[in-house]
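Form 7-S
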Amino acid sequence: MKLKTNNGSALQITLVLLLILSLNIFSLCQITILNSRSFKGLKEVNETRLIENILLANYKYENKNSILLSDYLTIDDYAISYTVDDMGNYFYIETTIEKENKKHLFHVELNKEKNIIQKIEEIN
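Output:
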């Protein structure tokens, strides 16, 4: 009678473990790349929101202390333009925030007398 020997079983186990390890490393690298991209996008969104909040405060300040007029501004890498329309008892303000090739548009209705924002409408 002949005994069968499994000389390849240790090699197969080593190769399977190596394959599993390499897949885990590859997955970890992919997750790291995706996280860095999402953090970059989150940073851009937060910067845009901050500029939007500063603009809203500026609209209210200008309405209260002087005359609110259309304007074009540059802050850091952002180009900001807004158009103010007098609608009787409120201002209708159309704002465009641009950075590189990305645009963020929103409309604001600002009550003249009470100096409160009645409506903000995001347009993307």
